[in-house]
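#structure-requests
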Amino acid sequence: MTYSAFETLIVERRGPVGWLINNRPRQLNAMSSLMRDEFATAWTELDADPEVKVIVHTGEGRAFQTGVDMTELATDGLGMERYRASVEAMDLHFTAWHQKVRKPVIAAVNGLCAGGGFHFVADADIVIAASDAQFFDPHTSAGQVVAFEVIALLRKMPFEPVMRMALVGRHERMPAARAYELGMVSEVVDPPEKLRERAGELAETIARNSPTAMRATKRALWGALENGLTEACRAGADELVSVWGHPDQQEGPRAFVERRDPAWVPLAAEDAPSHASAGGTEGKGRA
């Protein structure tokens, strides 16, 4: 599959792993309006590529992602007003969650992750970080409200450290080790230079599993964050039985007995969700 030409992102496939790399290193990968639009396309194309089983999201240079481009906000004459309609309508398209990506997504946090960068941490399925990664939320220090991204983080980690980060702003940074203690990340990679190697290894391990089973599992577990316990379990039951009779369910036990790697059925193109391009009306999301 040939990907679009991107100005602010690097999108490529290595074996079964799709890579989405933030590529504005001189701006610490701050998100310009162009980058925001390119994210929508990149997630959709990686999800549609039948050769991609798992997606890794990381950044070039000293930062993973540092939120909205403050220079653009201050100089383009539009500021945050350019996003008012999409935010008020909850019609957003720049994370994997917004774009209803079916495949597992690993966020590999290198260096700084600040402000809007938490969108991608909150919306990834798995988050790992380099040992020198630092997390902070400067919204209130720049006269902005903290909302979507940290509201999402409250589904994954305790309330008090999230609130502290929101209120202290740019004046305090959380190290990777503390983020691990709080459950924001599931693994800290040391030395930091091994982050991409480790992310690739983890992605390739996950890619060995049934794409169909992982898709249903992802829907069930993300759905549980949206629903109450009983409703979540009922929805989970629907996902559980949805793969009964699927070839992968017979192939898994057969491969185990025969002591070989299973031959999974690829996700069918017709099973793909309807993705919207940037600025569209579908794929409404949290942030």
